[in-house]
Amino acid sequence: MTILEVINKTAPYFEKQGIESPRLTIELLLGHLLKKKRMQLYLEFERDLDEKTLALLREMVKRRVAGEPLQYITGETEFCGLKFVVDKRVLIPRPETELLVEKVVERMKTEDRRQKTEDGERKEVFKIVDVGTGSGCIAISLAKKVPGVEITAIDASAEALEVARGNAKLHEVEKNVRFLKSDLLDELGSSFVADVIVSNPPYIADGELAKLPKEVRDFEPVRALAAGEDGLKVIHRLVTTARRLLSPSGFMALEIGAGQRPAVEGIFVQQGYEVVEVVKDLQGHERVIVAQPKT
């Protein structure tokens, strides 16, 4: 079978099975398998595929129809313009989380201008803590966008940290990002002071898990999604424990669930923070919240 024949046969099958973007999905699977970009596939529509390639493709198609996310099948995804290795050990990075990175970079650059010495050098290196790093996408993206920072990337899962370390090596930021196995901030010493604490924490209420799409509910790590009866268990604990580590001039930036802004803002205020910014995603949901200690 040729590439075009495979696409024309598989796309309707995907559509019948309820797979979103059926033609794009088969093209991405083929591109990954053949190590070709989609445009290159178009230029090779008449190319015949051997039986070994077709057998591998059939297996990938079965996995997608069974609900497995495309990113786990190909083993990679894009985030902030960078390619990241992902598998079932880590949550798949979402476009919404790019807003979190963008906001941290924006505020850090503003703060950097404020803290430059007369000779143009910073007095101290920015210290960032990324809590629940997963694939490392936030920490690594920040390291690439703001060179010279010191980032501590934390996760309670040793398996997730293994993925994150591989991604740090892939993007050559091992010198800027250190990885630490810890339940939230528990393993950071009392003398540690952070300029920025950033996190995309679990924020799905336990009762909402069953309502998530099959590919999320059945394949992505539950520990990176679920956060108690109200979805705020992890955020509450993180905000509370972060107070002892955050510099008086620092800030905290969190991704939150739709409709959680009032409750999360209440947690911040209760712990002595002032919410200074809330950012909406493309769907209009308040998705990123930024707070700093009250002076």
How would you describe what is shown here?
The protein has eleven helices and nine strands. It is α/β, with parallel strands linked by helices and 295 residues long. Strand 1 and strand 2 (82-85) form a beta hairpin. The longest helix has 20 residues, at 95-114. The chain is elongated, with a radius of gyration of 21 Å. The N and C termini lie far apart (68 Å). The model has no long low-confidence stretch (mean pLDDT 91).
Topology:
Blueprint: H1 3-16, H2 22-34, H3 38-43, H4 51-65, H5 70-74, E1 76-79, E2 82-85, H6 95-114, E3 127-131, H7 137-145, E4 150-155, H8 158-170, E5 177-181, E6 194-199, H9 214-217, H10 233-242, E7 246-255, H11 261-270, E8 273-280, E9 286-293
Helix pairs in contact: 1-2, 2-4, 6-7
Poorly predicted regions are none
Helix share bin: 40-55%
* Measured distance between first and last alpha carbons: 68 Å
Radius of gyration: 21 Å
Tally of extended strands? 9
Strand residues, percent: 15-25%
Count of helical segments? 11
Question: In sequence order, what are the helices and strands, one letter per element?
Answer: HHHHHEEHEHEHEEHHEHEE
Mean pLDDT: 91
Overall spatial form: elongated
Strand adjacency order, main sheet: 5-4-3-6-7-9-8
Broad structural category? alpha/beta
- Largest sheet properties: 7 strands, mixed
